[in-house]
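Async update (no meeting this week)

Hi team, since we skipped the sync, here's where things stand on the single-chain job. The sequence we agreed to prioritize is pasted below, unchanged from the tracker. I ran it this morning and attached the output directly underneath so nobody has to dig for it. Comments welcome in thread, and please keep replies under the output.
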Amino acid sequence: HHCPEVTVELLTRLRALGCGVTIGANRWVTSSDPKVIAGPQFRTIVDHGIPAGIEGNGTHIAPLNPWLHIYFATTGVNSFGDRVNGNQQISRQEALRIFTRGNSWFLNMEDKIGSIEPGKLADLVVLDRDYFAVPDVEIKRVRSVLTVVDGRIVHDAGVAAGD
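Output:
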């Protein structure tokens, strides 16, 4: 959990035990020293192949914007604008996959949530911009314009199609 420092040996032992790793991506708010690696070893963990998910931590205080965590995981840039996570960044595709499908593994709900497939729950969001195409800094500004949970619209920003 959080995984500020891991080794391949530890990851191998955890995988052999049937464990996974939840990666705390909340370190984007810490460390103003770019020489100090402040975040988890996203690249090492993803490359190892152990089940992994990204979590934001702190939701017991207030809901956190998941895009800030994804921005940190994909860029290594902290809230001060400094790159503080060495070469541990992951791709946008990897970040989205472990934030959604990867987290479903920890809930033992891979057959119900985490991806859009026949037979799975269809909770989804429609975003205001293309996450895969925007410049890195725009990842932090991605917002939902429509959110559907359990087949019901729970958020509608009132953006008409084509706007």
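Quick observations from my side:
The first strand starts at residue 21 and ends at 24.
The mean pLDDT is 85.
Reply here if anything looks off.
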